[in-house]
C-alpha cells in the first residue's frame, strides 16, 4: 500500500509540474540561446595603392626599378602617365581613384615628388 501511495504521489507531482509548465507560457517556450556575434578583429590599415601595386605591378617590377639612377619618371605627372599606361596595357580596368592611389603610394614610398615625405616602415 505504501508503494502504491508513493507511486500515486509521484504521479500527482509529475502531472502538477507538467500542468504548471503547460499553463505558463514563459516555461512552455523553448529556451533559445541568444546569437553571439563574434568580436570584430582589428582591420590592418594598408594603403589601397600599396595593395594594388603589390598585387598587379610587383610581378614585373621590383623596388630596384624605382630607385635606379636613370628612372623614367621625373615628375608626379610622368609617374601618373606610366601607371595609366601599364594599367591599360595589362587591361586592369582601374578607375582614376585606383591609379591615383598607386601613384600616391609610389610617390610617397620611392619618388618624393612635390616634397612628399617618405613613409616610415
Q: If helices are DSSP runs of H or I spanning 4 or more residues, what is the number of helices?
A: 6
List the uncertain runs.
41-45
Q: Largest sheet, if any?
A: none
Rg from alpha-carbon coordinates: 35 Å
Globally, the shape reads: rod-shaped
**Can you give the helix content as a percent range?**
55-70%
| Amount of beta strand | under 5%
What is the CA–CA distance across the termini?
Answer: 88 Å
Task: Supply the key terms.
121 residues; mainly alpha; 6 helices; rod-shaped
Polypeptide structure, described:
This protein has six helices and no strands. It has helices at residues 2-23, 25-28, 48-57, 64-67, 76-89, 96-111. The longest helix is centred in the N-terminal third of the chain and has 22 residues, at 2-23. The radius of gyration is 35 Å and the shape is rod-shaped. The relative contact order is 0.10.
Show the helix and strand layout.
Blueprint: H1 2-23, H2 25-28, H3 48-57, H4 64-67, H5 76-89, H6 96-111
Helix pairs in contact: 3-6, 5-6
Q: Quick summary of this structure?
A:
With 121 residues, the protein is mainly alpha-helical. It is built from six helices and no strands. Helix 3 crosses helix 6.
